[in-house]
Request: fold
Amino acid sequence: MKLRRNEYCPIHRSVFCCGREQARKERRFQLGVKRIEDPHHPRGYRELRSPAEMRKLLNRKIADQNGKCAICHKEFTEYSDIVPDHKHPKGMGGAWRDDHPDNIQATHWWCNEEKGSTRTDY
Reply:
């Protein structure tokens, strides 16, 4: 009798024995920063960042802003209160999503929520 691909062998207690080859899993590889050509954008392209890359950028922005919110200019007390904010949001004619470092600032979540889709030029 033949064992199925993901069935454990009762003798070897393994899925990869008795002539079965390891099943190759299709890996989904997500690039950290993806550049999308956009002729309507002033730079000619937009950037999309993965959550990990966005977290790295947000940490850099916190350091650049001396630990202060870009909107209310008060110091951050908890990391969980900090969110990235787009200076030129989609609602104000910005690109569908542009995560370029020049377009991101670190803010409190309540400041970002209150700001909504308005543009800030700080």
About this structure: The domain at 33-115 is CATH 3.40.1800 (His-Me finger endonuclease fold). The chain has a mean pLDDT of 81. The longest strand covers residues 33-37.
